[in-house]
């Protein structure tokens, strides 16, 4: 009953086995996914939007990621826990990336870290991997750059496609054990997947990727309002919780909860 390792992930690609990843931001939710057999959990900086109430991932701090990641590790025993390096915690260079990653590994117990950027993050990835920290890369749409590039499909057109392929090869050459492809045309994601020997983890990148990831609040219907086209909704958690809250409120107001059976003497 050991945790999933980067070796297991490499073997899955060799064997042609697909695998699912979900985000998690707290111990209890993480324990549900762990018991359900999700092999890799991502403490995404999507916690900014999905857990902390910000509009983007940009304001999320390293201290916040350390706290959330530690909770997810405590809530799980089997899943590999990957922690996002938040915006501002690795852009200064490889040494800053190493210092930030060490906190997520040593204080939180994460197995691996994830950072955004292909060619531009090559040096950071290299130092982390040389230091013994497994790195998941993230290319295509990179939400920490929302102020520069917005939320648009990446890799459309020949020039952008070539850049995405260069980014994918750069993170593999730097030693990343997997790479997230976010909002990339299906055909291009398939080409990247066939070109690389490390697994691709798609989100809005089509079915040919080696693995898939979704934000749990999106795919379980907790996120309010519209979710991206690439999300499939597997549950209606927002309605389940809202109905429970309303039923409880009605019973308290109406005097039908608590009853004798909920009382002590
Ligand atoms: O923060 C996050 O949830 C992510 C995934 C969408 C890949 O980076
Ligand atoms: Na992220």
Automatic annotation (TrEMBL):
What does the protein in this record do? Catalyzes the reversible reaction in which hydroxymethyl group from 5,10-methylenetetrahydrofolate is transferred onto alpha-ketoisovalerate to form ketopantoate.
Where found in the cell?
Answer: Cytoplasm
* Co-factor remark: Binds 1 Mg(2+) ion per subunit.
Cofactor(s) it depends on: Mg(2+)
One GO MF term on file is: 3-methyl-2-oxobutanoate hydroxymethyltransferase activity
In which family does this protein belong, per the annotation? Belongs to the PanB family.
| Annotated binding of 3-methyl-2-oxobutanoate, by residue | 45-46, 84, 114
Keywords assigned by UniProt? Cytoplasm, Magnesium, Metal-binding, Pantothenate biosynthesis, Transferase
Under catalytic activity, the entry for this protein gives:
(6R)-5,10-methylene-5,6,7,8-tetrahydrofolate + 3-methyl-2-oxobutanoate + H2O = 2-dehydropantoate + (6S)-5,6,7,8-tetrahydrofolate
Residue positions of the active site: 182 (proton acceptor)
The protein here is known as: 3-methyl-2-oxobutanoate hydroxymethyltransferase
Domain of life, per lineage: Bacteria
Q: Supply the Pfam families for this chain.
A: Pantoate_transf
State how it assembles. Answer: Homodecamer; pentamer of dimers.
Q: Which PANTHER family match?
A: 3-METHYL-2-OXOBUTANOATE HYDROXYMETHYLTRANSFERASE
Methyltransferase in keyword set: no
Instruction: Locate the residues binding Mg(2+).
Output: 45, 84, 116
Say yes or no: keyword Transmembrane helix present: no
Instruction: Give the EC number(s) under which this enzyme is classified.
Output: 2.1.2.11
Q: In which pathway does it act?
A: Cofactor biosynthesis; (R)-pantothenate biosynthesis; (R)-pantoate from 3-methyl-2-oxobutanoate: step 1/2
